[in-house]
Amino acid sequence: MRLVLLGPPGVGKGTQATRLGAHFGVPHISTGEMFREALSQKTPLGLAAKKYMDAGKLVPDDVTIGLVRERLGRPDSSRGFVLDGFPRNLVQARALEDVLRDVGTRLDAAVSIEAGEETVVRRLSGRRQCRQCGAVYHVEFNPPPEPGKCPVCGGALYQRDDDREETVRERLRVYAVETEPVIEFYRRKGMLVAVDGERDIDEVTASIISALKEGNAVEESVPDGDM
Ligand code: ADP
Ligand code: ADP
Ligand code: ZN
User: Fold this and answer.
1) Which ligand 1 atom is the nearest neighbour of the CA of 200?
2) CA distance 129 to 114
3) What is the largest CA-CA distance in the chain?
4) Which residues contact 29 (CB under 8 A, 6 or more apart)?
């Protein structure tokens, strides 16, 4: 299974990608997580990405595309993947097609998770993440059993800097301008699967899996013929 997950910041892409990766037995690849890990290790990549992330802007395409190209070239990606947070603009969407064509494969579907702005703002403001293992919780909608502590690894939970209100506003603006056209890109190719992201976490997972099984987008999409 080769999927990309699309949708505004905070809609639940990471949450669903983790579950779908486990369900299909393929890696969950998040560009945001890769940047945050690089930053926590203070690598040149992380330090270069930081100023864009802090400002709520996209990290430049050459950096991001290079990172994804390298990641999809690793052996575990050959079984499939769930990409979360990439592609985020049309340049990245076209680059992804090239990368996959180079390794002789293509996407099965692009899943768009839909929810209103009020919902995503509420989800972002209550999001908490484990510093140690990266697991994601919500103070109200998916609370850890012990506040502030990760039940998986015992690590401390923190709030991402870019989940503060000012940065959130800029991320939503960037999403509308740069990322929304990517949804149309996949719709035209007959690859889009849209699901209602307003429902609770388990319901969204179930509806994605059943939409993929129904195979509407998966079977309708015709191979490019140039692979
Ligand atoms: P994204 O990767 O799209 O930014 P996340 O998966 O990190 O979104 O989810 C954002 C926040 O919303 C997290 O705190 C998560 O626990 C919570 N969340 C995710 N999906 C749902 C849902 N269906 N209902 C309620 N809260 C959710
Ligand atoms: P969210 O879960 O809220 O959608 P992410 O964790 O996916 O956020 O991304 C956090 C930040 O990392 C983005 O605001 C952006 O600065 C950077 N980033 C992640 N993915 C990409 C990408 N594909 N292209 C450019 N920048 C990206
Ligand atoms: Zn943890």
Assistant:
1) 23
2) 22
3) 53
4) 68, 71, 72, 77, 81, 82, 83, 84, 86
The answer to whether 191 and 74 have CB atoms below 8 angstroms apart is no
For ligand 2, which residues put their CB under 6 angstroms from it?
9-10, 14, 31-32, 35, 52-53, 56-59, 64, 85-86, 88, 92, 162, 171
Predicted structure pTM score: 0.94
**Is 79 among the residues known to form the active site?**
no
Write the pLDDT tens digit of every residue in 77-87: 999 999 999 99
Closest approach atom of ligand 2 to CA 52: 16
In a domain, 225, yes or no: no
Asked if 160 is an active-site residue, the reply is yes
Evaluate whether residue 221 is within a structural domain. no
What are the tens digits of pLDDT across the range 133-163?
999 999 999 999 999 999 999 999 999 999 9
Query: Structurally, how many domains does the chain consist of?
Result: 1
Asked, for residue 227, whether it belongs to a domain, the answer is no
CB 55: neighbour CB atoms within 10 A? Answer: 14
Say which CATH number the domain at 93 has: 3.40.50.300
Whether 127 sits among the annotated catalytic residues: the reply is yes
* Average pLDDT estimate for 160-167: 94
Residue 114 structural domain = 2-214
